[in-house]
Amino acid sequence: MDIKEIQNLIKFVAKSGASEVKLEMDDIKITIKTGSDPEAPAVHYAPMATQVPQMQAPVAEVKTVAEVAAPVAATENSKYITIKSPIIGTFYRKPSPDKPLFVEVGQTIAEGDVLCIIEAMKLFNEIESEVSGKVVKILVDDSSPVEFDQPLFLVDPS
């Protein structure tokens, strides 16, 4: 099963209104769960092979300055909508090196505007905005690898 088939399955499940779908084939298992937001399904992809858990020695809890400041930053960003990566791949802010950026901080965007491209397995996937608003912050550097569900943009919907 390739990435396009998985993306199409996610879109189908989101539109169908199903709350959970499980698919098992040979050596892969895919579970898609939709939460309260039908447009943002949660996908869990795991190989069926079993792994032996490794034991770790207990570590004393030490809070850094960043961890203490994190709740303050979280409350400041709570009024913004976070646009997250729907797939794993490489994040690009422009369609090609000689073209202008898709969006910049401070730019107003509309629903359906292309925000970036994520390359996954030599496929370039345009990531479109699902909300309208103003781009407050771009959280990923150009040409950086991104994970599934990693925050990419903060948008002020007001």
Automatic annotation (TrEMBL):
GO terms, molecular function: acetyl-CoA carboxylase activity
Q: Does the keyword Membrane apply?
A: no
Where along the sequence do coiled-coil regions lie?
Answer: none
Record's keyword terms, sorted: Biotin, Fatty acid biosynthesis, Fatty acid metabolism, Ligase, Lipid biosynthesis, Lipid metabolism
Q: Does the keyword Ligase apply?
A: yes
Start and end residues of each Lipoyl-binding domain: 80-156
- Pathway listed for it? Lipid metabolism; fatty acid biosynthesis
Entries under Pfam families matching the protein: Biotin_lipoyl
UniProt xrefs under SUPFAM superfamilies: Single hybrid motif
Identify the domain of life: Bacteria
Role according to the record: This protein is a component of the acetyl coenzyme A carboxylase complex; first, biotin carboxylase catalyzes the carboxylation of the carrier protein and then the transcarboxylase transfers the carboxyl group to form malonyl-CoA.
Q: What is this protein called?
A: Biotin carboxyl carrier protein of acetyl-CoA carboxylase
Q: Native species of this protein?
A: Mariniflexile jejuense
Biological classification of the source: Bacteria, Pseudomonadati, Bacteroidota, Flavobacteriia, Flavobacteriales
